[in-house]
Amino acid sequence: MILDRKHFDINNKCAIEKLIIRTPLRLGAVFQDEACFTYLKEGEMSVTSPTDNLSIQAEESVLLRCGYYFTNAIRKLPAKTCEIYAVHLYPDILKELYKNEFPNFIKGDAHKPYIQKIEKQSVIAHFIQSLDFYFENPNLVTDDLLKLKIKELILLLLQTDNAENIIALFSDLFNPRQATLNEVVQAHLFSAVTVNELATLSGRSLSAFKRDFEVQFKNTPANYLKEKKLDKALELIQSTNLAISEICYQVGFNDTSNFTKVFRQKYDQSPSKYRKK
Question: Is 65 in contact with 177 (CB distance < 8 Å)?
Fold first, then answer.
């Protein structure tokens, strides 16, 4: 649940925002005409893109290029809520900020990853603290100040340990990339992403996704994904000592009872009995 949201806008577009949430919370986001820097102040978060699944810890952040995403926020400390900060990066504002300073800023080959994870950095934490000051004193905020804060963030990111990767992602941040159907499916074979969410990540409607999927894989999405998860589960049962419940979640089933049911349907035995055999 979103408990509170504060934001500052430029040209009627959200530029910087702060969210206070109660977890667990799952959010879908589409950054169609923008990229987004997201910082997690406390808690834990997973970010799902068309081709990646990343786990983000407290004081870490991610830079997301244009695309479709799902975010799961998890609270580690039950007595506290989570704070998430986002700085939205729009091509028109960045062009105005940089002009001829960074001529290749929004050019690229559109083959870079969707997400760049930024490990815990003290300079980023101090930047977030400076944002808090303005959220507490919104009367001081102007468009010019917001633009300066956006530019400050970018300059700080280029000073972090993974600046080379940041530059690589920035180079084509605003070239929308359409992941192939196979890329999306293979990236999330063993995750708990639903068929509806896979359709969204691929940039298709549900009906178009199912149609294209069946043409390419000669199977329905639900059946194909189930079979792949069961094949992987069988491999892990035979080759590891992992607990059955851990295998269940590793291959993308949401609960052990459903996993046991579909496993028995295919192999005529429960996972535990199959392992004993």
Answer: yes
pLDDT band, very low/low/confident/very high, at 75 (cuts 50, 70, 90): low
CA distances 230 to 210, 221, 251, 267, Å, are 21, 14, 8, 9
DSSP 134-158: HHH-GGG--HHHHHHHHHHHHHHHT
Spatial distance between the Cα atoms of 106 and 9, rounded to a whole number of angstroms: 22
Strand partners, 8: 16
Cβ atoms 67, 33 nearer than 8 A? no
**How many Cβ atoms sit within 10 Å of the Cβ of residue 179?**
19
CA nearest 224: which of 236, 205, 242, 210? 210
What is the maximum span of the chain, computed from C-alpha positions, in angstroms?
70
**d(C-alpha 227, C-alpha 34), whole Å:** 37
| The two three-digit tokens of residue 219, written as one number | 């199977």
Per residue in 235-272, pLDDT (tens digit) is 999 999 999 999 999 999 988 999 999 999 999 999 99
Cis check for the bond before 24: say yes or no (omega within 30 of 0): yes
Tens digit of each residue's pLDDT (9 = 90 or more) over 7-18:
999 989 899 999
